[in-house]
Design brief:
alpha+beta; Tetrahydropterin Synthase, Chain A; 4 helices; 5 strands; elongated
Length: 135
């Protein structure tokens, strides 16, 4: 029997700036365009888990616990931040959505009990999202 997949959606706002501090402004503009300036997004984060249904509850996982984990280890860190400057993990990484989903996965996965993290989907804009399925 296949296992169901359950998704919980979260929202946060954050800013970032692409570029390299050791590059001149002109080169950063050439490579990253307007994104070489500080700008922000209203992110939508989808956290998808899978696992066996617990017979007593009918659930895969306690969504209240998932919410606590995501709020503590992701939302409380990223919301209203300039995350490429404020979050040490991004010290030598570009603040792309591709890197951000890996950061988010690494923040959630060790704390999740009773279910398996299956996918992180991060909507950066209404037309751009990034999926990550773990390492």
């Amino acid at each position: 029997m296949s296992k169901p997949f359950l998704t919980k959606v979260f929202h946060f706002n954050a800013a970032h700036q692409y570029g390299h501090e050791d590059w001149p402004d002109e080169k950063n503009w050439e490579v990253f365009g307007p994104d070489s300036k500080i700008h922000g997004h209203n992110y939508t984060l989808e956290v998808m888990v899978t696992g066996s249904i617990v017979e007593e509850t009918g659930f895969i996982v306690d969504l209240g616990n998932v919410k606590k984990i995501v709020n503590k280890y992701v939302i409380d860190i990223l919301d209203h931040s300039l995350f490429d400057k404020e979050v040490d993990w991004f010290k030598n990484r570009q603040p792309s959505s591709e890197n951000l989903v890996i950061f988010i996965w690494n923040q959630i996965e060790p704390h999740l009990k009773g279910a398996m993290l299956h996918r992180i989907r991060l909507h950066e804009t209404p037309t751009i999202f990034t999926d990550y399925y773990g390492a």
